[in-house]
Amino acid sequence: MDEQVFADGIGAISMINGTVRVDLMAYSPTDLDAAGQPRPVFRQRVIMGLDAFLATAEKMHEAAQALAARNPRLDVTPLSASIPTPVPASPPTPTLVRTEPEPRTAPATPVKPPFP
């Protein structure tokens, strides 16, 4: 292994043009916030296709479950378990309105065909 990147976490995840960008962040030893705490700063970006990102997310979840099995104090409840399932809205009831057709009238001036 030639190079290692240390990260304290993920700062942002975005998807642009079908590729997922994962911004890794680390706490700065010199840049402090108003409370004197280290600020998170961008360190490096990992860019991958959507399929690779989803496979990576699954692997990370499996790793978190394995770590939790070794240490019962860790809570790895899936995020999806805490998000309520959306209830689909009922479709609107159509309102039927009866309309009478407009009477047809002849044009005020005769229309000439464009070609003889």
Question: What does this protein look like?
Answer:
- This protein has 116 residues and is of the alpha+beta class.
- The chain has a domain at 9-71.
- Helices cover 22% and strands 29% of the residues.
- The chain contains two helices and three strands, in the order βββαα.
- The chain has a three-stranded antiparallel β-sheet with strand order 1-2-3.
- A hairpin with a 2-residue loop joins strand 1 and strand 2 (19-32).
- The chain is elongated.
Short description:
With 116 residues, the chain is α+β, with helices and mostly antiparallel strands. The chain has two helices and three strands.
> Given the helix and strand composition, which structural class is it?
alpha+beta
Counted by DSSP, the helix tally is 2
Biggest β-sheet strands, sense, barrel: 3 strands, antiparallel
Low-confidence stretches: none
Q: Return the string of H and E elements.
A: EEEHH
Helix content: 10-25%
Give the strand tally. 3
Radius of gyration: 30 Å
Overall body shape = elongated
Instruction: Please indicate the percent range of residues in DSSP E strands (runs of 2 or more).
Output: 25-35%
> What's the pLDDT, averaged over the residues?
80
Biggest sheet strand line-up = 1-2-3
Distance between the termini: 83 Å
Quick tags:
3-stranded antiparallel β-sheet; elongated; alpha+beta; 116 residues; 2 helices
List the helices and strands and how they pair.
Elements (H helix, E strand, L loop, with lengths): L8 E8 L2 E14 L5 E12 H21 L8 H4 L34
Antiparallel strand pairs: 1-2, 2-3
